[in-house]
């Protein structure tokens, strides 16, 4: 469904600065109807790779095919038309503050060239999918983080896309909301069969909704695995970064409380003596 | 009892018809100059944003030229601009004196002034909404009309208010070319003829005018602003 072929994205340096390579020769096949997770630390190039798929960021080299169409070979006009097939949601929702929830969703249809008469009805239908029909007339400022992301999901879905790109969709919401947003994404993927790509730095996110995962580091896809294989213990990360990312333990060095209080007590006593001039 | 605390009430009453004319002239100046400035300044400001190196359609070289041209016009003290563009004024309105003649330099001054406001207000919206619109396959025109100008609307209304207040004050310099207006009235009667009461009266009128514009503008902008 999505075929990323030898994609590289280099950013030119400003002035005397050296440029840098955000995405370095990545190839990835994402089957139709699957959920692909892309996990990595900040600056690993995962968001750039996601933006390469709908060409918000045009790759410096390589090809991106969505449903057989090579997007990298399209002109502006054709690319815009293809983008109606590719929904996208963002970490910070990127809703328009001065438009209500339903108007935000409608805008997506307007850009897709849908006639005005059909827009309102379809926008309401999309809001129903994310259980926000009663918030249709609310402005984003009156919605919670989770509700805003659900409006954004409705906005991305309303044009009936084949692909949904999610850029850190749960990084700006609390843990309980994270679960709810992910449940919607999972339901939508299953019920509508939309191929979904989720970029995140949270292992939990990919574990709970992805079928396949790519680990990114310094612009490269350094590990790939199926979540089933990870869960069943058949997959073992080969790289340092992979082991670190797939490990729930943060490995913080820390003295247990009992010993720590003895320490501090002793240290405190020593300091008191010092102050007293002993 | 026409003299209260040194204020010659009779004189003010005597001049009231002229005050009315002067107020009318101020209104005409603002009602022509500001809408034209909005009409031309908005696309200019959008262009300044869009053609900038980080804009929707970067045109760095042309942008640098237009950008400095805007700065040049903005650099002129209004009084000097008023005189400097007399040939333009004659060409546009056929005369170089009177209210119509002042409207030309006022407008020319107001266009780049407002364009800067538009550019600034749009730039401050951040890249997020533009990116979302691009991902939805919006054209550049749709991004400007349906996203940027809608999101910037409350800020733009605030800018129009600030501009109107500034130009109430600028219009006082209209007297130099016989343009009239309430500011000119204050200068001619109050300042030149030492009629302090008349001057103070005119200034109070200007204060009321400015307050009304500012309060009205702020309220309207707040009503449009849905961020809170």
From TrEMBL, chain A:
Q: What Pfam families does its record include?
A: ABC_tran (PF00005)
Domain ABC transporter, by residue range, is 2-243
Q: What ranges does the record give for the region Disordered, renumbered to this chain? A: 257-278
Which keywords appear in this protein's UniProt record, sorted alphabetically? Amino-acid transport, ATP-binding, Cell membrane, Membrane, Nucleotide-binding, Translocase, Transport
Report which superkingdom the organism of origin falls in. Answer: Bacteria
Has keyword Membrane? yes
InterPro entries for the chain:
AAA+_ATPase, ABC_transporter-like_ATP-bd, ABC_transporter-like_CS, MetN_ABC_transporter-like, P-loop_NTPase
The question of whether ATP-binding is a record keyword is answered with yes
UniProt cross-references to PANTHER family, sorted A to Z:
AMINO ACID IMPORT ATP-BINDING PROTEIN (PTHR43166), METHIONINE IMPORT ATP-BINDING PROTEIN METN (PTHR43166:SF30)
In its UniProt entry, what is this protein called?
Answer: ABC transporter domain-containing protein
What is the scientific name of the source organism? Zhihengliuella salsuginis
From TrEMBL, chain B:
- Give the main localization category: membrane
Write down the superkingdom of origin. Bacteria
Q: Which residues cross the membrane?
A: 27-49, 69-86, 92-115, 155-177, 197-217
What InterPro entries does the database record attribute to this sequence? AA_ABC_Transporter_Permease (IPR051322), MetI-like (IPR000515), MetI-like_sf (IPR035906)
Q: How does it sit in the membrane?
A: Multi-pass membrane protein
Keywords tagged on the record? Cell membrane, Membrane, Transmembrane, Transmembrane helix, Transport
Pfam families cross-referenced by the UniProt entry? BPD_transp_1 (PF00528)
> What is its subcellular localisation?
Cell membrane
Keyword Membrane on this protein? yes
The entry sums up its family as follows:
Belongs to the binding-protein-dependent transport system permease family.
Q: What is this protein called?
A: Methionine ABC transporter permease
- Tell me the organism: Zhihengliuella salsuginis
Lineage, opening ranks: Bacteria, Bacillati, Actinomycetota, Actinomycetes, Micrococcales
């Amino acid at each position: 469904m999505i075929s990323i072929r030898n994609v590289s994205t280099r950013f030119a340096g400003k002035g005397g600065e050296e440029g840098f390579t955000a995405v370095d020769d990545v190839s990835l096949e994402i089957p139709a109807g699957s959920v692909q997770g892309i996990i990595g630390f900040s600056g690993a190039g995962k968001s750039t790779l996601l933006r390469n798929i709908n060409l918000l960021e045009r790759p410096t080299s390589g090809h991106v095919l969505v449903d057989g169409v090579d997007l990298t070979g399209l002109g502006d006009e054709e690319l815009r038309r293809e983008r109606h097939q590719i929904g996208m949601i963002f970490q910070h929702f990127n809703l328009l503050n001065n438009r209500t929830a339903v108007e935000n969703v409608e805008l997506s249809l307007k850009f897709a060239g849908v006639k005005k008469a059909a827009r309102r009805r379809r926008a309401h239908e999309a809001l129903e999918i994310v259980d926000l029909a009663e918030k249709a007339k609310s402005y984003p400022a009156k919605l919670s983080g989770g509700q805003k992301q659900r409006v954004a999901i409705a906005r991305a879905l309303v044009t009936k896309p084949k692909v949904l790109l999610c850029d850190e969709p749960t990084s700006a919401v609390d843990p309980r909301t994270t679960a709810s947003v992910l449940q919607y994404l999972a339901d939508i993927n299953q019920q509508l069969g939309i191929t979904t790509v989720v970029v995140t730095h949270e292992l939990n996110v990919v574990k709970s909704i992805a079928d396949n995962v790519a680990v990114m580091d310094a612009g490269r896809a350094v590990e790939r695995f199926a979540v089933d294989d990870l869960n069943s213990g058949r997959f073992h990360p080969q790289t340092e970064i992979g082991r670190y990312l797939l490990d729930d333990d943060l490995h913080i060095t820390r003295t247990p409380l009992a010993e720590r209080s003895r320490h501090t007590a002793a240290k405190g006593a020593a300091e008191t003596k010092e102050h007293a001039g002993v | 009892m026409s003299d209260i605390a040194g204020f010659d009430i009779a004189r003010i009453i005597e001049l009231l018809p002229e005050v009315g004319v002067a107020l009318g002239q101020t209104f005409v100046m603002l009602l022509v100059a500001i809408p034209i400035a909005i009409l031309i300044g908005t696309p200019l400001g959008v262009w300044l944003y869009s053609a900038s190196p980080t804009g929707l359609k970067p045109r760095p070289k042309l942008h640098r030229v237009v950008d400095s041209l805007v700065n040049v016009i903005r650099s002129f003290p209004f009084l000097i601009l008023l005189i400097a563009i007399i040939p333009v004024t004659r060409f546009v309105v056929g005369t170089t004196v009177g209210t119509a003649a002042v409207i030309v330099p006022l407008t020319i001054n107001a266009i780049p002034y407002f364009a800067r406001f538009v550019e600034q207000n749009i730039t401050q919206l951040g890249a997020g909404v533009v990116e979302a619109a691009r991902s939805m396959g919006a054209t550049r025109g749709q991004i400007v009309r349906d996203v940027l100008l809608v999101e910037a609307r409350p800020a733009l209304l605030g800018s129009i208010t600030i501009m109107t207040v500034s130009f109430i004050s600028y219009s006082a310099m209209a007297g130099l070319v016989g343009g009239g207006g309430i500011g000119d009235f204050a200068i001619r009667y109050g300042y030149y003829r030492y009629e302090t009461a008349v001057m103070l009266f005119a200034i109070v009128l200007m204060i009321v005018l400015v307050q009304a514009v500012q309060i009205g503008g702020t309220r309207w902008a707040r009503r449009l602003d849905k961020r809170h």
